[in-house]
Design brief:
Helix content is 26%, strand content 25%. By secondary structure, the protein is α/β, with parallel strands linked by helices. The chain folds into 2 domains: 148 residues, Medium-chain alcohol dehydrogenases, catalytic domain (Quinone Oxidoreductase, Chain A, domain 1, Alpha-Beta Complex); 150 residues, NAD(P)-binding Rossmann-like Domain (Rossmann fold, 3-Layer(aba) Sandwich). The strands form 3 sheets. Strands 3, 5, 6, 7, 8, 15 and 16 form a 7-stranded mixed β-sheet that branches. Strands 11-10-9-12-13-14 form a 6-stranded parallel β-sheet, sandwiched between helices. Helix 2 packs across helix 8. The relative contact order is 0.15. Bound molecules: NADPH dihydro-nicotinamide-adenine-dinucleotide phosphate (NDP). The site of NADPH dihydro-nicotinamide-adenine-dinucleotide phosphate has 30 residues, from helix 1, helix 2, helix 3 and helix 9. One of its GO terms (molecular function) is 15-oxoprostaglandin 13-reductase [NAD(P)+] activity. This is Prostaglandin reductase 1.
Amino acid sequence: ARKYIVKKYFQGLPKKTDYEFVEQELPPLKDGEILAKAEWISVDPYMRAYNPQQKLPYDQISFQVASVVESKNADYPVGSRIVSIRGWVDYTVIDPKTEQRFYKLPNLDGLSPSLGIGAVGMPGVTAYYGFLDLCKPKAGETVVVTGAAGAVGSLVGQIAKIKGCRVIGFAGSDDKVKWLEQELGFDKAFNYKTVDAAKALKEAAPKGVDCYFDNVGGELSSIIINQMNLLGRVSVCGSISAYNEDPRQLPKATIIQPAIVSKQLKVEGFLVWRWEDWNAAFVDLVKWIKSGQLKTQEHVTEGFDKLYDAFIGMLAGENKGKAVVKV
Ligand code: NDP
């Protein structure tokens, strides 16, 4: 099997030399085990964010959809598909009894198996519960999403539309803005790199913001939180604007505590692992995709040897929707 090991702490953007590419013999299968061949491997922002907390060296984890190619477990016959968090590795021996964060690929009703690491996988569950449970959106409310054209953000905005909200998105290119407004049904979208965000938001949401789904943190989030309404809700999902920065050199962001106090906001961070029942989310997500209410887009990079490039490309904002690697 071939796999990527992280052997250095990233400084700024991860470098190719921070990884080691190794080949290893896999042991023969024991009773109960399966041999799985990766078909789709995910590249995600957390792989950058978690790096400083890991003990080196470590295997580059991420979700993957794999097909069972050998089996000593009747529950997982050859040809069936699984989702594991084994990451950047092409073949894995797995004991389903003891494997963590492992499940059979959910019923996708004929949709592409790649969705198992995207809209019907961890990012989908993040959008579904992270938005619905924390923001508790009501029809007619104004919702703002940052990282709006990404895997999680593009789903959050569309789920907000399904719930009858008015949705404003911020993303990093004019092409993404066009896609959000013309294809995904966002009421308004802005390129945060070129627009005066405070002014644009004032105009797009003159009555203020009720829910904010925060993927990016930093000054853009401060600007949005300062325009929230009384009893507004902020779901803090991530802070990608800071992932590649040296924490000691981060620019100062505007203080948001006065807005939180005076507007009595509820600001809550979460990790997707909080929710145990991912299947309930998968059922709704598949239903919405099948009915055309939820559009999914993938940014596909081909080749196991291109995982690093796909990862860096995603961090640089090359992706619309979910960045995935086809093995
Ligand atoms: P995306 O598909 O959104 O990809 C990352 C995107 O981030 C890029 O496309 C880029 O888009 C944007 N970006 C990069 N640098 C910056 C920057 N400096 N400022 C603003 N945006 C930037 O990734 P995901 O949807 O997988 O993840 C989105 C967020 O959700 C991340 O913060 C991630 O850590 C978080 N997350 C949290 C989870 C949880 O359990 N709390 C679970 C899953 C994800 P652009 O062109 O718009 O800049």
